[in-house]
Amino acid sequence: MKYSFILILFSFILMGCPYQSDVELNTYEESLKIDKNLIDNWVSYHEDFSREELSIEKLAKSVLTIVHREFDSKGRMKGSNKFRAYATEIGSITIFNIEADNGKYMFLKYGWTGKNEFYVQAVNADYVETNLKSDSLTTDELRNFFVKNVNQEKMYDEKLEFYRKDSPEHLKVKMFMKKSGF
């Protein structure tokens, strides 16, 4: 289980340095209903021709199960892990609590960029640790910090775009990758 958490951390570290917390932004019961459009298989490509794949399923009314797989540039699987995700809305921005097996939480901003495309941005650890001072962080303190900073682009790492597997958008990206030597 620790290995799974390390894999997910590694993938988010590629995007930047994600913030980890002992507390969540909200509970399962307080979470938004899941976005049913997310339930499917997704793929994201990196400049080095490696890729990440997500299989997203509904676990409960407001909780998703996500299986995350990483592949190297030759298509070999580097790792796979599973975690739970549940969302809250802060200032019209949807933020996912990503629950790891070790009880820690990471946070991702998400949004749609097209019918078959969405992006995620991890909350940056440096930004939060520099701007949030607390000896014993509570959910209320963390949520208040997010309310005040949710619109600060510095709070987030780079966007990672995912395409619905085998959608027209995904096929265009695959065609481009093939022409580029992938």
Task: Walk me through what this model shows.
The chain has helices at residues 2-15, 125-131, 139-149, 168-179; strands at 40-45, 51-60, 63-71, 77-90, 93-99, 105-114, 117-122, 160-164. By secondary structure, the protein is an alpha+beta fold. It has an eight-stranded antiparallel beta barrel with strand order 1-2-3-4-5-6-7-8. Strand 1 (40-45) and strand 2 (51-60) form a beta hairpin. The protein is globular, with a radius of gyration of 16 Å. Mean pLDDT is 89; it is low at 1-15.
Q: Measure the end-to-end span.
A: 33 Å
Overall strand count: 8
Look at the structure and give the mean pLDDT: 89
As residue ranges, the low-confidence spans are 1-15
SS class: alpha+beta
Q: How many DSSP helices?
A: 4
Give the helix proportion (percent range): 10-25%
Radius of gyration: 16 Å
* Overall 3D form: globular
Strand content: 35-45%
Major β-sheet, in short?
A: 8 strands, antiparallel, barrel
Q: What is the element string, with H for helices and E for strands? A: HEEEEEEEHHEH
Q: What order do the strands of the largest sheet run in, or round the barrel if closed? A: 1-2-3-4-5-6-7-8
